[in-house]
């Protein structure tokens, strides 16, 4: 466990999320999810966590492992077609992870998700958080639309509202 990482997480907590993701940006992200889900039958959730604290921080939990915990906690795996996708941003580390349920993950694969994550991280390094998230949602939606086209009258199984931890 690195003291530098602990310091960054302790100092760069929730205030950073409020600055980079004010209500206007969270609303834009929600609208992007709604627009994307109009093109496919998949389910997308966006979660931003300012920094780790408590046990996850002191266990030095990697962003990928934390994303898997969040995926499970939010029950994103519990969709009819196994096509739920989590876009998780750990802001203190500027690390994006995409966790996808087995139905869509088998089609896109780790390399496909990684490419989307790296593109988002490029925008984040430039300070373009809203743009990076919305482009990421659009990229995930394109993948979902290829394999799970929109079904008229299909249910919206998961909330579209972004989650801030």
From TrEMBL:
<dbReference type="Pfam" id="PF04536">
    <property type="entry name" value="TPM_phosphatase"/>
</dbReference>
<dbReference type="InterPro" id="IPR007621">
    <property type="entry name" value="TPM_dom"/>
</dbReference>
<feature type="domain" description="TPM">
    <location>
        <begin position="27"/>
        <end position="141"/>
    </location>
</feature>
<protein>
    <recommendedName>
        <fullName>TPM domain-containing protein</fullName>
    </recommendedName>
</protein>
